[in-house]
Design goal:
The protein is of the alpha+beta class and about 325 residues long. The chain has 11 helices and 16 strands. It has 3 domains: about 90 residues, no CATH class; about 90 residues, no CATH class; about 100 residues, Immunoglobulins (Immunoglobulin-like, Sandwich), CATH 2.60.40. Helix content is about 35%, strand content about 25%. A hairpin with a 2-residue loop joins strand 2 and strand 3. Helix 3 packs across helix 8, helix 3 crosses helix 10 and helix 8 packs antiparallel against helix 9.
Amino acid sequence: MKTNFFAYCALFFLLIGTVSAQDYAFKVLSSKGHNIAGGASLKVGSKLTANQTLDVGEDSYLVLACSNGKTLEITKKGSYKVQDLSTQANSSGSLASNYAKFVIDELTEAGSEGIAAKNRFQHMNKTGSVKRALGSVATMLPSERSKIYGSNLVLKWYVKDNVAFQDQIDRYRVQIFNLNDEVLYTNEFKQEQATIDLASNPKLMKESVLVCKVIPLSKDNKELENAATVDGDAIVRLEEGESKQISVELGAVTKDNQTALGKLIEARFFEDKELYADAIHAYEEAIKISGGTEQFKKVYQFFLERNGFTKDTNEKK
């Protein structure tokens, strides 16, 4: 009898555990806008059951994690039966299990009050911080020769604290040179960031090494620093063999690289390959596609901080 009693107990707890593990169809990873289920507004961590109906408002954005570990994004206004969404998620899985898990963990962390410093800074020793170049401006690149896979270059920079003419800076001139010191590109930016489409400029496309310089300008168009005295940052294109290999691996990592979540997975892949310029562009695209969701901005900030790509983390390093 004792044996039967313990067997029944084991079976009972097994059944309870199974029901408990499957008491929801989806968990909310990210929610922007007016999203309601069961009469309650959805927030990070909210659970959706199969019998519920989800109402998504105008200009809203949702990332849901299915109980089977797969994910689903919703960007269109409307009413959705959770049961139907489960079917969609089951049929739209990604091969990026490791990268997807990291992204899901970060989205969950970004939606919580507590931020794990260990997770945010775990890669800083691997990449080092932004190099301390000569000149008043430090660009957010990890070394003197940063590799790039794609054709979109996002440059970010900051002005060093000891610069005497900080209050005179009105804007910045970004110039790109080849190794012969010929100017291939010039443009001016008010913000401390520039996005450059390398594919739109034939001169930029044919060069394997691009040297970038950022020069502060005053309101009267005066260069506050001589470009000749400024260190340039070299951006090196991948060789053909390397580029093909990255294409193959990236195709296996995510099939949905035009979605916000797909872009986050793409960014994590590029970071892992130490293609930081490509990772930065992917994060920027993810934020744009998601409509500026705060969680996506936080995940981007985690990336910048753990790699020493912010002024605070670089100065501390």
